[in-house]
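User: Last request for today: this protein with manganese (II) ion, please.
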Amino acid sequence: MTVAIGNPMIRMPSQAKNGEIIEVRSLIMHPMTTGLQKDKAGKIIPAHFIQTVTAEFDGKLFMTIDWSIAISTNPYLAYKMRAQKSGTLKMTWKDNQEQSWTATAQLTVA
Amino acid sequence: MAGDVPGWPAKPFEDKTLSSAMMDSVGKTSVAPSPKVKLTAPTIAENGGAVPVTVEIDFPMTADDYIDAVYLFVDHNPSPLVSKYQFTPESGQAYFQERIKMAKTDHIRVIAKSSKGVLMASTPKEVKVTIGGCGG
Amino acid sequence: FFGPGAIASAWGADGDPYEISDYGNVTLLHMTDSHAQLLPVWWREPDTNIGLGSARDQPPHLCGKWMLEYYGIPMKTKDAHAFSCLDYTDLAHKYGKVGGYAHIHSLVNRFRQARPNKTLLLDGGDTWQGSATSLWTKGEDMVGAQNLLGVDDFVGHWEFTYGQERVQDLIKNKLKANFLAQNVFSSTWNELVFKPYVIHEISGRKIAVIGQAFPFTPIANPRYLTPDWVFSIHPGHMQKMVDECRQTHKADAVVVLSHNGADVDMKMASQVQGIDIILGGHTHDIMGPKPFRVGKTIIINTSTNGKVLARFDLDVGKGKINGFKFYYLPVFSNLIKADPKMAAYVDSVRTPFKTKLAEPIAVTESLLYRRDNFNGTFDQLLCNALMDEMDCEAAFSPGFRWGYCKLPGETITMEDVMGQTAITYPQVTVNEYTGAEIKNIMEQVADNIFNKDPYYQQGGDMMRVGNIQYTFNPDALIYHRISNMHIGGKPVSSSSKKKYKMAGWAPVVAPVEGKAVWDVFAHWLKDKKTVRVDKLELPRLTRNMENNHGIAEPKTYGL
Ligand SMILES: [Mn+2]
Ligand SMILES: [Mn+2]
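Assistant: Here's the final one, the structure of the complex with manganese (II) ion:
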């Protein structure tokens, strides 16, 4: 069975005023299996899930998330960020099978 | 090939009961609710595999005092701790939306910790997982 | 059935019931839950619609004489016939059928002509489902009727059971009305799927109409039909939409076109500030002759099957409504000339199916209806048919609130069979359940109807059961409402080994193979040739239900 995996995406305003708090929304394809379910043959499907998500702006880490097996398939995540200067937002997702994905988005602060 | 991501707090995530997961996360098994911690979730789950939750904490995020960590629990999930968010003043607001798995009717609860160590909880929110099949 | 004399006497007593004097600068016309009934139908109000907690003895939980007393309507009048179940068959012969799109069209045109450029027609949903032709045309016959009628705005519930692609196709390519929903989001990016509201400019004023889809669609109906859409109530988002209409768009009046159901609307009105009027549907309630208020919000619910057209004449000033007049108008088909254009349209969509629709199946000797909290005579027949045809000792049938009536002596045609069963997931199922599993299912469904918190109420009726006897306390908590359960007159076994073979239909969890319920029902009815229901299978209700104004005939429940 092949399951779509990866393809991280970020959606957020490309411009903001200095000091404005903007919403960042993101999506990534991932099976997020729990390790508690069996396949049709009765064999345990191993746990395969994203454990951490980080967000950094121009290289400075400002948010770290730890997730359990209880996060849904293809995780959607929204959070906030204070716009203080123009630069690059970088998000990194890492799973328990040593895979990782990154996505970036540009912000211009007027 | 499988291995935990460095820094991922395995202990509280592997706890099987709410009280041990709370103990290993915030060092307490009971935290007083505060109206500052807002948890929004549907009254009835449309899909127990993807219950949308929104958490919003009404607390200034200054360098001096801010929300440092937010924990979300589902009381009777196989591992009750669902997520841990660590914020900084650059976040602007301690806020997130995520979708979570719930096996049956259960309570979701959130605990926030400020950088000065003050703990605040949400009012627990019951989400019902039910059968349907009727309608007007 | 009714002679011309009956019509004259109905009309003559009160004059022309649809003559309305001019008032204000904006008119809202509201119809809802027509359930695709293009032609006039018989529609009996329930004799049981129990209200609990703060909803007890309040509209819309009033039945029979309680309903008439509350609204001050004299017995046996045509309004009494429209708003209560009392003397249903006798008064039906006297006053005739209700609704029908050609009759509604005449009424709407008359009001539009009297109030040119001042009138909006709002359709509260459940319009595309409930008839054979709507099912066979996948909703398209109704879209044509809505376009001809000139519906301005529209919201949805059963519409979604045609599947998300079909819904989008009809909305984008066929429907002229605005399809509105502030509470349907994509399951990927959490974005609105439909326009949340529309601002109409009338008489120089701005009228905002915000749409609210049925919040529990993926629970009450199969979720696999709308896999990419997430629903729910979203009072916070509703508040945001109201504020946006008032502040950004400078709306002078804010109207919510809702498919929440009456009790959910009342709770939402207590949480959201700034809504002037909620035009409600879904629960098919009579909640009209006098509008109900929660805080500053006026709430109505406009019945079903084309029975009622509601009309608000508003005096809208700058930023607020200065005054209003309200009319809750039963659509008596005999009192209104059919609009020829709509009549021709209805005829044209029915023509290809005429033979199939008219096929006689059986004759009924007693009144057949569905709507009631616990059982209806039509559902009793359906349960009996399922048990006989599928060789089962008991049956479940969903507590749907649509499905029109047949009078004693009438022939049940294939169209009438479809009128009780026309859904996109009609399969008949047979399952083996333990006694505990049966009770668990019934308890869960009961909690979706009788939970005291309206946000847990899905707006249907209790599931119908064939050959299951039980005592019921609506006021208890989940898993404590049902006691003294028997199957076939014998106490239900508590053994996990004893399984009961049960028939049912309308599976919601996943698509299944199976015979269509209309074929099973029609086969059984043809075999019987004539049918009658003399005694309904009803639960015994507990003593605390004595004098509940939602029960018109307490004796039938052992009270
Ligand atoms: Mn309906
Ligand atoms: Mn409905």
